[in-house]
Amino acid sequence: MRTVLSRLLLVGLLGVAVFAVVRLADGTSRALVALEGLHADELDHQAFSLDAPGTLAIDAAGSFEEAGSPASDTTLAAYGWVVRRSDGAVVWQMDPARPSRGTLVTVADTLRLEPGIYDAYFTGFGDPLVREPGPRDGSLRERVRAFLSRGGRAWVGDAGRWRLLLRALDEGAREAETSDLGDPARTDVPDDSAVVWRTVGVENRDRREGLLQVTAPARVRVRAVTEVTDGVVADVPSIVRLDTRDTVWTASGPGVWAGGSLKNRVVEAEVALEPGLYRAAFAADRSHAYDGWTANPPLVPWAWGMTIRRATPDAAVARLDPADVELPEIVAFECVGPDQERRATFDVPAPLDVLVVAVGEIASGSRYDYATLEVADGDDWDDVWEMRRDLEPAGGADKNRRAVVALPLEPGTYRLTYETDGSHDCESGYNSEGGPDDPLWGAVVYALDPSADLAAFNVRVDEPAPSAAPPSSSVGALVLPDASRLLAQIDSVGDDQDRRVRFTLDAPTEVMIIAQGELSDESRYDFATLERANGQEVWAMTWENTVPGGDALFHRRFEGPLALGPGTYVLRYRSDGSRGFGDFGPASRALWGVHVYGPDAAPPETPETPTVDV
Predict the structure, then answer these.
(1) N or C: at which end does the chain have fewer Cβ atoms within 10 angstroms?
(2) How far apart are CA 438 and CA 359, in angstroms?
(3) Number of H helices, E strands in the chain
């Protein structure tokens, strides 16, 4: 009996060992790239880098479009590929034969790569330009086919088996890295002295533009990766001469296929430019662009956009340098100090192109010192331009940003505004991260017509105002209740913090909240919130429910009651990377954070005076 049990145990152990060997041989958990669990209508991506030459084993599965036409018979609907990031070369892609039945295909391959960064992709959008979504004739069979294939997308049923696995076969591949490689559309590209202007990774409804200055007749080579269907260019690249508003080049014709859907096209041209100023632009429509595809993307997805290169090394064309501009200056705010809101209004009597140059402080999507341009519309002002996108480094700290933009203005009344917060400016001094290379800290509007008559613009400059905050009739000194009433507190908050404190109420309670922070009518920089334990927000500091906390712009205070039910709450305070505790005067040293107070203690009951009979 003991011998039988021993043999059974041995067989069990052997089975476990075999399972482990099979699992290791499968290698999914150790794959350098593992794109699995994929879905239709998605693009999956993983980057990796090699410091030495390496060899990879590839295991991939994808799908063909439904058979039925010469185009769909040879078109993959779902597939994987690998791109070398440095030059956008496709180093491997699925290229299987069509299966005799069904749409699923598998590929096993090996790939030898040199050192570099690589991007592995898998797409599952298919190409609507090659499929027949409806019945190909009036027969019942065709109507049933169209229904069962989900409009010609029968391959979607294969999605659970799609994959792209890359496994290391040698030491060079085993040393590969996969972390912190970023989005190729948002990372720096290798230096190329011939490139004058480049914009890539353009998303839906996005418009990118750059200004070029040509000082002698020159030729440039333009390359655009865009969407063209039936001869119509959906995402439009262009070069426009600013003084005449003439379009000297735009995409036309089908170009060449960029891979993926047939509507992905590369359009290239060589363009002659005469001396002058030009606007290069790439404007995407509402669908099928980077990070928002509606069909399989091009094989180099991040190249969606436009690149302009000098056709010859001595071509006299470059990005416009604002320091070299010699144009009529309509209005300028050149060294704006802290806590300012500078405004100037001017009239445009006839259509006019202007150049706006602005330098300010913008970090992590938040604007601290920035410019806007508006046009009068009756008693209101409509935005024409705001300093938010297409910004470039201005030197010094990363948050020093510069905008250089040309704008066509129709006749009307316009207002230039430049707003600052209470730190990091050219008047009171830049903080430890340093000021910009450009002495400008403000905004300038130039007329692009050198012969423009400045008197015709009737410029009116407002007196400097210390704050854009709505006036408050009474902002008293900060007075904190007795500390014995505190239920929760967060104090002395520094930069880049996210602090939380929990407290519990056993019964319905009206609490008092006092908080100070930094907010504008657009953004919250340092602010408090109150949440339930499940994350539901029950209160937050906003521009609307706060009042000025002092004389500094954006210093805001909340002080008021809030009725809460029984339960556990999370008091939270978040801050950005500049200005905080103590930077807004004495009040900000007394409290830069948030306090929650319970109600006053109930006064003791006065005993009744006994009645004495006489």
Answers:
(1) C
(2) 8
(3) 5, 38
CA distances from 529 to 115, 510, 557 (A): 49, 16, 13
Q: Is 495 left (phi over 0), alpha (psi -120 to 50) or beta?
A: beta
Kindly tell me if the per-residue pLDDT of 17 is higher than 50.
no
Sign of CA dihedral 132, 134, 136, 139: positive
* pLDDT digits 0-9 by tens, 383-442: 999 998 778 888 888 888 989 888 989 999 999 999 988 778 787 778 766 788 878 899
Q: How far is 363 from 576, CA to CA, in rounded Å? A: 9
Provide the 3-class DSSP secondary structure of residue 19.
Answer: helix
Give the residue carrying structure tokens 């954070």.
Answer: 593
Give dist(CA 253, CA 143) in Å, integer: 36
Question: CB–CB of 591/491 below 8 Å?
Answer: yes
Output the six-digit token pair for 245: 């508003």
Q: Looking at 380-459, which runs of residues are DSSP E strands?
A: 380-386, 392-393, 400-409, 412-419, 442-447
Q: What is the dihedral of CA 331, 334, 338, 342, to 10 degrees?
A: 0
The candidate with the shortest Cα–Cα distance to 337, out of 417, 420, 400, 395, is 420
